[in-house]
User: Which sequence fits this backbone?
């Protein structure tokens, strides 16, 4: 019960700060706020102060900042109405929610980095005789760019390597050494091997290994497997965990011969026969890099606090791209129920380590959730803050308001799609609990 309460509080804090952004900017721009609410559904408690009703609603998911004439184009002449405010003021109010999420993520990152330090992407060791060494890479180099992408910290480099295979033609790095930046390029060592094209992890109950990612064009992906499927057997041999899978593949290495794989998907057993492993070329970096956190001075603390937020924004954007290109499936998306369960699990794992570790774990989750909510709300989709800002941008370019009926219809359709999506995700989250 405590884990659920803690999880709801964490999620509620993130949502409250988002709505607080809308609320404060509305007040600052003299727009009347009719209600400021945490949660959805029937009211549990409420009180009025001035022109605003402050409410706590039954369902602890979501929140709202209802403004006068917010969705009524005819309210433009009403004093204090949202529609009556200048375009730039309305844009500030709408953008404030996501911006406050990023501010919250930054403040929590500052606490986190101050307490446990940062993880700069420093090269720890370069393999002797490797192409990386021959190209001039040295121990102690700080990696600032990998394949043209800026690297804020070691976690960002690690996630790039997880979500994208190491290139087999040329690896491009930019490193900082003795205060100067140097560009390093080299052709990595490679080897060919047979693969099924999936990444995996242990399940909580040792029922198999769960697929976490399918590489593009892999035999499993082309055969209909999805991220989230649980592999339970290979060629009739039961697999309960990653150790057993590694042991089986060690004794029966893939050589291009057909294999059969049994899996569970939402509790339903399936078996795919005659899957032919593909021969793939795998590249090696030729160096290792730091993943441990280390204390920073004042300027390093500020720098890596911003880097931490940037890293999580990067994770959200890359994850969205992976969802659309099929690397991840919709089955891996979590709604409020799944988020609460995940926060609860993290709390339970951290609690035996003491209150300090538990608080830092929850703060780290707040950074993740705040960054996620900020990015998601800026997507240019109807009914989201990003969608409203897009319509305002169009209005600014045209120098006149759009058709109110069309805009209302667009927002209504967007809201219906979002509600249907949330219902689907919530049902899926609940099913995963059983």
Assistant:
């Amino acid at each position: 019960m405590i884990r659920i309460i803690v999880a709801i509080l964490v999620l509620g804090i993130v949502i409250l700060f988002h709505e607080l952004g809308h609320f404060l900017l509305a007040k600052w721009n003299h727009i009347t706020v009719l209600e400021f609410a945490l949660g959805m559904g029937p009211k549990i408690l409420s009180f009025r102060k001035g022109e605003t009703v402050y409410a706590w609603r039954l369902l602890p998911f979501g929140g709202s900042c209802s403004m006068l004439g917010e969705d009524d184009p005819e309210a433009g002449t009403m004093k204090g109405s949202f529609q009556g405010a200048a375009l730039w003021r309305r844009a500030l109010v709408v953008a404030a929610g996501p911006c406050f999420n990023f501010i919250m993520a930054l403040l929590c990152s500052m606490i986190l980095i101050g307490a446990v330090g940062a993880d700069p992407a420093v090269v720890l060791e370069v393999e002797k005789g490797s192409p990386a060494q021959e190209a001039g890479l040295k121990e102690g180099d700080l990696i600032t760019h990998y394949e043209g992408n800026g690297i804020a910290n070691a976690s960002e480099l690690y996630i790039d390597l997880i979500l994208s295979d190491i290139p087999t033609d040329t690896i491009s790095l930019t490193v900082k050494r003795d205060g100067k930046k140097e560009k390093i390029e080299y052709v990595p060592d490679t080897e060919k091997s047979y693969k099924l094209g999936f990444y995996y992890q242990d399940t909580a109950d040792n029922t198999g290994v769960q697929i976490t990612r399918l590489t593009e064009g892999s035999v499993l992906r082309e055969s209909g497997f999805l991220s989230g499927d649980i592999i339970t057997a290979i060629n009739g041999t039961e697999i309960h965990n990653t150790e057993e899978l590694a042991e089986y593949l060690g004794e029966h290495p893939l050589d291009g011969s057909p294999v059969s794989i049994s899996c569970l998907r939402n509790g339903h057993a399936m078996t795919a026969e005659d899957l032919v492993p593909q021969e793939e070329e795998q590249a090696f970096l030729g160096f290792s890099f730091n993943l441990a956190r280390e204390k920073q001075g004042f300027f390093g603390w500020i720098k890596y606090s911003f880097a931490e937020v940037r890293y999580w924004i990067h994770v959200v954007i890359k994850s969205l791209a992976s969802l659309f290109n099929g690397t991840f499936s919709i089955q891996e998306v979590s709604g409020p129920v799944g988020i609460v369960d995940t926060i609860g699990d993290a709390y339970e794992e951290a609690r035996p380590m003491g209150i300090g570790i538990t608080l830092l774990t929850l703060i780290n989750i707040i950074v993740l959730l705040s960054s996620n909510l900020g990015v998601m709300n800026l997507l240019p989709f109807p009914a989201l803050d990003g969608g409203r800002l897009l319509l305002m941008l169009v209005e600014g370019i045209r120098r006149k308001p759009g058709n109110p009926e069309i805009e209302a219809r667009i927002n209504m359709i967007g809201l219906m799609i979002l509600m249907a999506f949330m219902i689907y995700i919530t049902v899926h989250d609940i099913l995963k609990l059983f």
